[in-house]
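JOB MANIFEST
job_type = single_chain_structure
chain_count = 1
residues = 253
[input]
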Amino acid sequence: MPTDEIIIRLFLIVDERLGTIKKRADAKLYASEIVTIGLLFALKGGRYRAFYRWLAANYACWFPGLPELSRMHRLLEEHAELTERFLAKPTLFTVLDTFGIELIHPRREGRSPQQIGTKGISNGRWIVGVKLGWLVNDQGQVVDWDWDTASAPDNVFRETAFRYEDQTITLCDLGLRAAEEPQRNLKFCRRGEWNERFTVETDFSWLTEVLHAKKMYHRVSAHLVARFRYMAALLNCLLHITDGKRSLLQFVI
């Protein structure tokens, strides 16, 4: 799908979902424009500076009054909470799993006092970064999410499922078990059981192949959280564009 069409479709979805949000007198962009830019950043992936250069060089005329680089970065963080409106409703069955994200090379661990991530294992290899806990419904739409450092055990994400205890049964692997804690709405599945869990694996493949989210470069937790918010909203928007079809490879930009 052409990039121009992707931007137009995303903006129409965002503008409809956000509705009327009053713009400050000194603001250059409307909230729907800022959120659309945040979704584009989540879709393109990579470093923010490279994304901003691409946006300013190719689509500055689409966003008149585009702020300078650092101001735009702050606006993306300030408006990230609006993406809560794009999260999906839980269904009878949901799936919870974790996704490891590398922030720095392991050799650079401990060099900066502002380091966000920690050392942990993801997909059989050591990384220094964070884990993203991803809760999706039976259509692969993101219902909720949370994050922690890579050294944290997977069972710290149990609370993400417990928030919907009265609404859904959450399928998860054995890594989310916790000693002497109630199971509540969790359904622990061994390898090869409950193929419905592949919905979250498909989402993770999109995070890797389409959003390039396996490696991120954020050094401030607030901007990292904002990126997670836009990623979750973007995935639901793209599934809406494709009418729920489970293929997003046409959206690579």
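[summary]
The first strand starts at residue 93 and ends at 104.
The longest helix spans residues 221-241.
exit_status = 0
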